[in-house]
Design brief:
With about 230 residues, this protein is an alpha/beta fold. Helices cover about 35% and strands about 15% of the residues.
């Protein structure tokens, strides 16, 4: 499939989404940007009419940060003052580790007030006894379970632009090959605490027909008739 064919499919799906369900039903997200991709994606989404841009931290820094905290026995404090209907606990043991010394009593109180618990953990420990469902997965199979869950709740049309054929990319309807920032001339934005914009010249040619994130966003914007903004 050529780039023109792939981009036309994406544009047709975006247009269909906008006309049938409204532009706000489209969701845009990206990993940690190395250049101006983040403000450009926000401009693209706003011009399209969608307020739904997932913060980069939600798909980049936050999972890494949270995973390290869970692995080492700590956990970011959750607001459980308004008990949710369901707690999904994945690979953690709140009742024993009790981050900050307050999470265990809050989780216990939430369960007493009626919140159900689904526990995903190979060991279970004491939280398994209080769980509505305990998925006793084998160590190292978390990714397989996560992929299976994504397949069940998969969005109607998924486009992935990535450097590699990741598990998420393998489930996508369209995969757009991306070049790293070493393979095209670019401006690198380094925000707080640096506040600098630096020129980054290309070092090597991109393989095949790989394009930069900026190029992909601009191509989609052009096909969606957003030239006045881009």
């Amino acid at each position: 499939m050529s780039w023109d064919e792939a981009l036309e499919i994406v544009v047709n799906k975006l247009t269909e989404c906008k006309n049938v369900s409204g532009p706000e039903t489209a969701i845009f997200m990206q990993g940690s940007p190395k250049g101006l991709e983040n403000p450009l994606l926000h401009r693209f989404a706003t011009s399209f009419g969608s307020p739904n841009v997932v913060p980069t931290g939600s798909v980049c820094f936050a999972p890494r940060w949270a995973a390290s905290l869970v692995t080492t026995g700590f956990y970011p404090h959750s607001d459980l003052k308004q008990p949710p209907e369901l707690l999904l606990v994945w690979g953690s043991n709140h009742l024993s580790t009790s981050a900050d010394g307050i999470l265990a009593p809050e989780v216990s109180s939430t369960i007493r007030e009626g919140s159900k618990v689904i526990l995903i953990d190979p060991f279970g420990r004491n939280l398994a006894k209080r769980s509505e469902l305990w998925l006793r997965i084998k160590p190292g199979t978390d990714l397989l379970l996560a992929i299976g869950m994504i397949k069940v709740i998969k969005v109607e049309f998924l486009v992935v632009a990535d450097l590699f054929m990741t598990p998420t990319a393998q489930m996508a309807d369209i995969v757009l090959p991306v070049a790293t920032h070493f393979k095209f001339d670019d401006l690198g934005f380094y925000g707080l605490p640096f506040g600098k914009i630096l020129a980054r010249p290309k070092i090597v040619d991109p393989p095949g027909e790989c394009k930069s994130d900026v190029k992909i966003i601009n191509e989609l914007a052009k096909r969606l008739k957003l030239e006045d903004v881009f």
